[in-house]
C-alpha cells in the first residue's frame, strides 16, 4: 500500500497560507480522536471509584484523566500517521488532518511521539510507575501490534487489537491501589468481549471502505450471517463475564448485578434481532446493524457508571 498524493476535492492543501492557526489547533486535537478517548476515560474513572470503595482523591482523578488523554491521544496520532495512505481512500476518514494536509506527516509523528513520552513521564511522576508502565504498554500495543501488524493482516484484528483499550481499567485501578487485582481483570475481560460486537456492526456498515483499501475486517471476508453469529457469541460471553464481578468475585453490592443483567438483557435482545435479520437475508438499511453499535456505547457508559455508583449503595 502506498501513500496517496491526490486529495478529495474541496479539502485544504498543504500550503502554510491555507492553514490558519485556529484550524491547525483543531486539527491537532482531531489527531487524538477525542470521541474515542471519551469512552476510554469513561472506563477508567469509574474503576477508580471501585478501587477506592468510594470517592478517590480528586487530584489523582484529574492527573489520571489528563495522563490518560495524552497517552491515548499519542497512540491515536501515531495510528493516523501509519494509516494515512488508507485514510485517504476511505470515505469516513478522508477528512482527517493528514489527508487534508492541515497537519504534515512529520508534524503528526513528532506530536504522537511527544504525547506518548510526556504521558508516560506524567503517569510516573504524578500517579505511579505501575500506571506509567501500563499506559506505555497500551501505546506500544496499539501502534505496533494492532496498527502495524494485525489491522491489515487478519480478521482477528479488532479482537486482539482491542486489548490496548481494555488496559484502561488496569490503569484506573493501579492509579488508586498501585497494584492489580481480580476485579479490574474481570472488567478487562468485559471490554475484551465487548470490543468485537461493538465494532463489527460499524464495519458491516462501512465494509466497502475496508474492502477498497484491503483491510480484512470480518464483514469484508465473511457474510452478514457469519458476522452476526460472531457478534452473538461474543455478546453472550460478555454479559456472563460481567456478572462474575458480583459472583463469585463479590466485588460489588446489589446494584451492579441488577444493572448488568438489565443492560446485558437489552444488549442480547439487539444482538439476537440483528442475527435474525441477517439469517433472513436482510441487507442494506433494513439490516439496522448500527442499532447495536450505538447501543454498545450506551451499554459501556451505563455499566461503568454503575461500577462507580455501586460502592455508595452497598
TrEMBL record:
Subcellular localization, as worded in the UniProt entry: Cell membrane
Pathway: Porphyrin-containing compound metabolism; heme O biosynthesis; heme O from protoheme: step 1/1
PROSITE patterns linked: UBIA
Pfam assignment, any one: UbiA
Keyword Cell membrane: yes
Membrane-crossing residue ranges in chain numbering: 36-52, 58-82, 103-123, 129-150, 157-176, 182-200, 221-247, 253-271, 292-313
Entry keyword set: Cell membrane, Heme biosynthesis, Membrane, Transferase, Transmembrane, Transmembrane helix
EC number, UniProt record: 2.5.1.141
Reactions catalysed, as given in the entry: heme b + (2E,6E)-farnesyl diphosphate + H2O = Fe(II)-heme o + diphosphate
MF-aspect GO terms: protoheme IX farnesyltransferase activity
Membrane topology: Multi-pass membrane protein
Misc. remarks from the entry: Carbon 2 of the heme B porphyrin ring is defined according to the Fischer nomenclature.
The protein's role, per its UniProt record: Converts heme B (protoheme IX) to heme O by substitution of the vinyl group on carbon 2 of heme B porphyrin ring with a hydroxyethyl farnesyl side group.
Family assignment from sequence similarity: Belongs to the UbiA prenyltransferase family. Protoheme IX farnesyltransferase subfamily.
Protein name: Protoheme IX farnesyltransferase
Species of provenance: Streptomyces silvisoli
Lineage: Bacteria, Bacillati, Actinomycetota, Actinomycetes, Kitasatosporales
Gene: ctaB
Amino acid at each position: 500500500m502506498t501513500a496517496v498524493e491526490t486529495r478529495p476535492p474541496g479539502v485544504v492543501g498543504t500550503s502554510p497560507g491555507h492553514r490558519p492557526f485556529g484550524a491547525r489547533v483543531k486539527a491537532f486535537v482531531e489527531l487524538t480522536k477525542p470521541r474515542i478517548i471519551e469512552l476510554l476515560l469513561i472506563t477508567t474513572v469509574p474503576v477508580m471509584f471501585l478501587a477506592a470503595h468510594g470517592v478517590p482523591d480528586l487530584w489523582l482523578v484529574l492527573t489520571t484523566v489528563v495522563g490518560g488523554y495524552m497517552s491515548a491521544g499519542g497512540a491515536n496520532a501515531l495510528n493516523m500517521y501509519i494509516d494515512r495512505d488508507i485514510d485517504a481512500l476511505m470515505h469516513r476518514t478522508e477528512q482527517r488532518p493528514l489527508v487534508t494536509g492541515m497537519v504534515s506527516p512529520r508534524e503528526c509523528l513528532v506530536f504522537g511521539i511527544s504525547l506518548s513520552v510526556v504521558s508516560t513521564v506524567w503517569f510516573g511522576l504524578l500517579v505511579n510507575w505501575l500506571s506509567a508502565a501500563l499506559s506505555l504498554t497500551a501505546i506500544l500495543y496499539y501502534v505496533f501490534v494492532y496498527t502495524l501488524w494485525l489491522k491489515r493482516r487478519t480478521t482477528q484484528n479488532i479482537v486482539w487489537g482491542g486489548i490496548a483499550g481494555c488496559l484502561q481499567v488496569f490503569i484506573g485501578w493501579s492509579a488508586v491501589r498501585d497494584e492489580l487485582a481480580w476485579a479490574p481483570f474481570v472488567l478487562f475481560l468485559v471490554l475484551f468481549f465487548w470490543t468485537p460486537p461493538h465494532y463489527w456492526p460499524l464495519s458491516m456498515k462501512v465494509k466497502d471502505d475496508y474492502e477498497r483499501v484491503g483491510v480484512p475486517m470480518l464483514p469484508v471476508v465473511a457474510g452478514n450471517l457469519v458476522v452476526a453469529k460472531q457478534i452473538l457469541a461474543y455478546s453472550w460471553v460478555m454479559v456472563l463475564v460481567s456478572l462474575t464481578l458480583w459472583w463469585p468475585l463479590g466485588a460489588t453490592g446489589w446494584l451492579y448485578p441488577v444493572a448488568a443483567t438489565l443492560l446485558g438483557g437489552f444488549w442480547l435482545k439487539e444482538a439476537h434481532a440483528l442475527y435474525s435479520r441477517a439469517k433472513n437475508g436482510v441487507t442494506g438499511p433494513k439490516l439496522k446493524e448500527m442499532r447495536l453499535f450505538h447501543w454498545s456505547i450506551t451499554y459501556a457508559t451505563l455499566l461503568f457508571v454503575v461500577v462507580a455508583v455501586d460502592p455508595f449503595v452497598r
